[in-house]
Fold each of these.
Amino acid sequence: MSDVKPRIRLPRSVKAGQAAEVKTLVSHVMETGLRKDADGNTIPRMIINRFTCEYGGEMVIDMALEGAISANPYVEFDIMVGEATDVVFTWYEDGGAVYTQTEQLAFG
C-alpha cells in the first residue's frame, strides 16, 4: 500500500522525569476482508496489524491491531522521559509492509 503517512504529535518540550503524551495517527483504510467490491468479489484483508514504539532503544508499547479497528488508527499513550533520544514508531501491515518514523523529543 502506498501513501501511508503517519502523523505523530509529541510535546513541544519536556523535562527528564516527566510523562510525555504521545499521539499517533496513520492514514490507512484497514480493509477487513469482509466487504465486496462492485463486482461482488471479496476485497482482500489489508490492515495495520501491529504498532510499536521504542524510546531510547527500549520498547514502550507493542500492540496488536485486529480487523475491528477503524480506518486511520489513532493511538495515544504516555512515556516517561529520561533523556533526549529518538522515539521510533513502527506500523506493520498485512503482507509484510513496514512503516517507520523517527522523532526526537525536545527538552526545555
Note: The first strand starts at residue 6 and ends at 9.
Amino acid sequence: MSNVIETADVWVEKVNAQDVEGVLEVSDPNIELIGPRGAGFGHDLLVQWMENTGVNLHTITRYAAGQRVVYEQEAVWENQDGHVIVYTFMEIRDGKVTRLERFDNIDDAFSTSGLNENHKLE
C-alpha cells in the first residue's frame, strides 16, 4: 500500500512542479484521463492537460485500498483567483498511474473508486 501512496504523492508533486517529464515517468503510457471535459488516453493528452491547466494541488485527505486512491485536494489553477476542493481518483499499477479521474464531490469519487470513509489514511 505504501508504494501506491508514494506513487500518487510523487505524481502530485511533479504536477505541482510543472515537471512534465517527471509526471510522464510515473504515468503509464496509456494512462486514462477522465475529467469534466471528457476522457482520453495517453501521454500526449497528459502533456496537453498539464500545459493547459497549470493546476496546483494541495492534498488534504488521502483514502486508499489496494491499487486505488482518492485524494481530497485544494486545487488552484494558473491565472485564476481562489481555489476549489476536488477529489482525484487514481489507479496505480507497477508504480505507474494508469487512471486519473477528477470529481467535484466525494460521493461520486467513492462510488467510482469503491473506496469509502473507512479507507481514510491517518
Note: The first strand starts at residue 27 and ends at 35.
Amino acid sequence: MQHLHVRLLRAERGLVELALPYGDKVTQQQDGFHGGAMGALADIAGGYAGLTMAPEGMEVVTVEYKINFLNSYQGGEIRAIGRVVKAGKRVIVTTAEVDHIDADGKVSPCAVMQQTLAPVPKTY
C-alpha cells in the first residue's frame, strides 16, 4: 500500500482506519475512485482490525469479502474504517465502511464491506 500512499490514521484493538488519496493510480475511466481501490482499502482495514484480535504468533488471511459500492467520487481521499464483529479461534468476521472526504471536509459514503478472515501461523 506504500505504492498508493495509503496512510494509517488509527489503530486500536478491533479497529483500524486508513486513508487513500485521490490520484491516477486509483481511478477508473470516469476519473472517480476505482472499485478495486475501494475494495483493497476496505480489505486491508478489515484485515488489520482482525489482526489486532488474532492470537499471538498468528497472521490473518482473507477467506471472503462482500462489498457494496454506493458511489464513486473525484478528488479528496477515501477512508476505510475496519471493525471486528466477532473474533473466534478459527474465523474472524469484520466490517469496513469506506467514505469519501472532499477538500471541504464533507464526508460521503462510498462502500460497505463484510469480511471473513482466517488466522494462520506467522511464518516469518
Note: The mean pLDDT is 96.
Amino acid sequence: MSDDWRGETVDRIRTLITQAAPEVVEETKWRKPSNPDGVPTFSLGGLICTLETYRDKVKVTFAKGASIDDPHHVFNASLDAGTRRAVDIRATDALDEDAFVELVRGAVALNLA
C-alpha cells in the first residue's frame, strides 16, 4: 500500500465504507505477481465495491453502480458501463463524503433487496 496521498485516501474510503455499513466484510482478492497486495473488496449481501490504487488516482468501483441513485453525481468514471460505476479520486480532488456514504448505503440496500 502506498504511503503517500493514495494510502491516506484508501484509509479514508475504508473508514467511510465501514461508517456507511458497519457489518461490511473486507477481503483482499485477485493477488498476482503484478499486484501482490491484491484488491480490497467490500461485501454485504454481495459485492459492494472494490478499491484500487493507481499511480495517479484511487478508484472505487461499485459492482452495481448503474442501479444506484446518484443525485450528487459522485460517480465520475465508467459512466457508460452497463452495470458498474466508479469514483476516481486524484490527489487534488475533494470527495463529497456524505454523498459517498449514501452511495455505499444504496449499494447495500440493492444487495439486500
Note: The helical segments are 5-20, 97-112.
